Automatic annotation (TrEMBL):
Domain RNase H type-1: from-to ranges: 1-59
Pfam families named among the record's database cross-references: RVT_3 (PF13456)
Name of this protein: RNase H type-1 domain-containing protein
Annotated GO MF terms: nucleic acid binding; RNA-DNA hybrid ribonuclease activity
InterPro entries assigned: RNaseH_domain
Organism whose genome encodes this protein: Dichanthelium oligosanthes
Length: 89
């Protein structure tokens, strides 16, 4: 799970010591992750996480829920193409 929000990573790294109102989400996420071969929490810079940032902004602008399986919103195509071709030098 990658995020550019350090406080989220901190919440997930020590779930037993959290008193957050989001604690049930943290516990459910960790439990769901146990069914995967590998599940890690990783902080990444926003510049390296443009697609997630833009999807979050899209969610804030719209009033409906949407789920994309094996595809993505057309408005994100250019950013996804750039991120998929990203090379760190």
């Amino acid at each position: 799970l990658e995020t550019d929000c350090k406080c989220i990573i901190e919440l997930f790294s020590k779930p037993e010591s959290q008193r957050s109102r989001l604690n049930f989400i943290i516990k459910d996420t960790i439990e769901a992750g146990r069914s995967l071969p590998e599940f890690v929490f990783k902080h990444t810079k926003r510049e390296q996480n443009c697609v997630a940032h833009e999807l979050a902004q899209l969610a804030k602008r719209t009033r409906h829920a949407a789920v994309w399986h094996l595809r993505f919103p057309v408005c994100e195509e250019q950013i996804i193409a750039q991120e998929c071709n990203f090379s760190s030098k």
